[in-house]
Amino acid sequence: MTLLSPTVVSDDTRLGLRHVLPNTLPTNLDSADAPDRYTVDAVFTRRASRDEIALITGGVVRDALRAAGYPEVGIEIVDRRLRILNTSIPELQSGLASLLADQIADISDMTIDLRNDQAAAALRAADEQRVHAAAVVELAASVSFATSRP
Asked: 16-34 pLDDT, tens per residue?
């Protein structure tokens, strides 16, 4: 099963997180009425691919969150945002942000490597096909329909 399209991707297209979207935070943040936990939206460096979305929202990141002591934190992707559910700014500052950044970088690197491998394989297959086609043309050209009569 092929998940990824065969296009070469350079390292500068790595998916990452830029910053928190402040206008999506609770308006009563940093006050006596502030909630303990809320959703924090972080902006991606670019739009995540379908394959990256599947891996990020799949079990690997969820397992990493649990293993690191964040079992109540959830994530979802909406447009160019990673929605970090049931968390807080202090929790992100104390290590959760780095954990998420590392997980996303690992997934991005994996998908880039896989795409590059698939692109290289597609180029090799195309080259083999061209060589084969040239051999068939040469074989066909070796047939002579010259008359055998003087």
From this structure: 999 999 999 999 998 889 9
131: domain range? 16-27+34-139
pLDDT for residue 1? 39
* 58 within a domain of the structure (yes/no): yes
- Adjacent-strand bridge partners of 17: 44
In a domain, 62, yes or no: yes
Q: Nearest Cα to 20, choosing from 78, 108, 106, 84?
A: 84
**Is it the case that residue 5 has pLDDT exceeding 60?**
no
Q: Is residue 85 within 8 Å of residue 39, measured between CB atoms?
A: yes
